[in-house]
Design goal:
about 130 residues, globular, mainly alpha, single chain
Amino acid sequence: MIGWMRHAPRWTVVLVCVIAALLLLVGASSHTVDLFSHGLRPYEWAPGWLNLYWSSLALFDTLAAVLLILGRRRGVDLACAIMATDTAANWYAVHGIQHSGLADQPGLQRLIVFAALVLGTAPLVRPHLSE
């Protein structure tokens, strides 16, 4: 591990965890609203497996946020898994199903930035959290 990562200021670790947790809770609330408003298939244009994945994020986003707030490494691990798979799923939906481009999809643009934040800061944050 790079030396400066082990010596990151505590406030940096806390700030990153709080920002990531808040943004995960925004995603969880969005998925929860979709779930309660439209059921397990909130997006009629998407295949069932993709709808099920997005609906499951109501639970997984919340769990990752809670684990991050509690200062657990599993929160970082789960957030990384969520961001990698959600970015891939949304990229597939935009390009493979809707035949659209990144420039036309501000939601995907925001998701990519958030994924970069989570995945890019994980090595900095993870060593400072408890098992």
